[in-house]
Write a structure and sequence with these properties.
Layout: H1 11-24, H2 37-44, H3 48-60, E1 64-67, E2 71-74, H4 84-91, H5 94-118, H6 121-140, H7 143-160, H8 164-172, H9 174-188, H10 194-210, H11 214-252
Antiparallel strand pairs: 1-2
């Protein structure tokens, strides 16, 4: 007969599976410190030997790491697909910047549609809360705060899509996303009314997601990132024209 004996699962395997799922779903983040051994064993309801066995297995898999005298952390290797040098290189070369914006427009359009469709009520509350913070930061005219919240807003939409591959792809690119947001805004703020337009774009994205309208959410993302792309292109043309004008002026004053 094709039956096999069923053995009770070891407690350590249950612990491994639970921590793996927390990492997979993006709840435990790269670099995040786990609770102490005593606290974690109490929360999980397992003995310390079982917990240690699970932690050792997760360390062997490269998912957790121990820092001497500091505790156990989610491995940083999960957090960035690019080195800092490559991120800086991307951020300062037009070809990479515009390719990145095109990539974001397609990926985040899908994510926004999925968030409108599949996001939970709590997911939508998180997105809305971050947008409210963006409104407050806007009144204070602090570009750095606005840029940081901009990145958080877009990542919250990715998280609300509940696609773990998409989530980890964008999480791994978080540093690149931040660099892109800061770079875009620093250049675009040279244009009149840009800050107000960007806030209204994020309002439209948030409104569509809160209304659970996937088509409108995707379109709002496309409008936003197309505007960013066109504004950057315009600013670069203005900068090139200014360089030419300076040469003419220098020649005329010789």
């Amino acid at each position: 007969m094709p039956f096999q004996r069923i053995d009770a699962e070891k407690l350590s395997h249950s612990v491994v599976r639970q921590i793996e799922q927390l990492i997979l779903r993006g709840i435990l983040r790269p670099g995040e410190r786990l609770p102490s051994e005593r606290e974690l064993s109490e929360r999980l309801g397992v003995s310390r030997p079982s917990l240690r066995e699970a932690i050792a297995e997760l360390q062997d898999r490269g998912l957790l790491t121990t820092r001497a005298g500091a505790g156990i952390y989610v491995a940083e290797v999960l957090g960035s697909a690019f080195s800092p040098a490559l991120i800086r290189l991307f951020a300062h070369h037009d070809e990479a910047v515009f390719d990145y914006l095109s990539f974001r427009r397609e990926l985040e359009g899908m994510a926004a549609a999925r968030a409108a469709n599949s996001g939970t009520e709590t997911d939508l509350k998180v997105i809305d809360k971050i947008f409210q913070k963006m409104e407050v930061a806007h009144t204070k005219r602090n570009p750095s705060d606005e840029a940081e919240l901009d990145a958080q807003f877009h990542l919250a939409i990715i998280e609300a899509s509940h696609n773990v591959i998409m989530l980890h792809m964008m999480r791994s690119m978080f540093d690149l996303l931040q660099e892109g947001v800061f770079y875009n805004r620093s250049v675009m703020f040279k244009q009149r009314n840009t800050r107000d337009i960007l806030l209204e774009h994020h309002r439209a994205i948030n409104t569509a997601i809160q209304a659970r309208d996937p088509g409108a959410a995707k379109e709002a993302i496309h409008v936003h990132l197309t505007f960013v792309e066109e504004a950057l292109d315009l600013q670069q043309k203005i900068a090139r024209n200014e360089e030419i004008a300076k040469l003419r002026y220098a020649h005329e004053t010789e």
